[in-house]
Design a protein that fits this description.
Length: 218
């Protein structure tokens, strides 16, 4: 069994690896401190059975990391292990393709059970989503479904649009022609059912959980 831990905090990576080794002594554990590093490991080691992913990492906005890995490596299950415990964030992570969600504060037994469930082909649903509100639709549900229809290259273009990059900048980074980028943008507009780049940014702001984390005024 090969597992990949993706977290930008070395101490937590070590602690998580230790907990996994206690439960699965024969596991081969790799790690990465960011999404680019995770992509490199996944590309080099096709035997990875599970990714343990933190959502909150430097340089990652909202669910971009989760979406990027899912897009490039759709067959590798991802178990989110996060310090974020808002049920809305948990629900969004599952809707964006995570096979489970485990708060960092859980005990080792809960973590072990979640890993076993996902490795067994199931889902690991956090306790916070097991109550009556678990079935409530999220405002980003349809958006997540539409984003899932994007090709990997269209997803990369989408993420760059959200970063405010112009077509020429996107073309340079992807090493493609301007006309190719324009074609991707047109397809993104069509698939997301929006009419402008501005609407792309506004609609996909639902992917960010920064505002969800802020305390409610009152």
């Amino acid at each position: 069994m090969h597992l990949l831990i993706v977290d930008d905090h070395p101490l937590f990576r070590d602690a998580l690896a230790s907990a996994v080794r206690l439960a699965f002594p024969s596991a081969v554990i790799l790690d990465a401190d960011g999404i680019l590093g995770a992509m490199a490991v996944l590309a080099a080691d096709r035997a990875i059975d599970l990714v343990l992913l933190d959502l909150s990492m430097q340089g990652v906005v909202g669910f971009e990391g989760l979406i990027s890995i899912r897009s490039r490596f759709p067959r590798v299950p991802i178990l989110v292990v996060s310090g974020l415990e808002d049920p809305r964030i948990m629900r969004e992570a599952l809707q964006h393709g995570a096979a489970g969600f485990v708060p960092k504060a859980v005990d080792k037994a809960t973590l072990t059970r979640a890993i076993a469930d996902v490795l067994g082909g199931g889902l690991s649903i956090p306790a916070a989503l097991s109550g009556p509100a678990a079935g409530l639709p999220s405002p980003a549900t349809h958006l997540a479904e539409r984003i899932a229809r994007l090709t990997p290259q269209q997803l990369r273009v989408l993420l760059m649009i959200r970063q405010g990059k112009l077509n020429k900048q996107i073309a340079h980074e992807l090493q493609v022609g301007d006309s190719t980028v324009k074609a991707h943008v047109s397809e993104i507009l069509r698939k997301l059912d929006v009419i402008s780049r501005t609407q792309i940014v506004i609609r996909t702001a639902l992917l960010d959980f920064d505002q969800i984390q802020m305390p409610q005024a009152g």
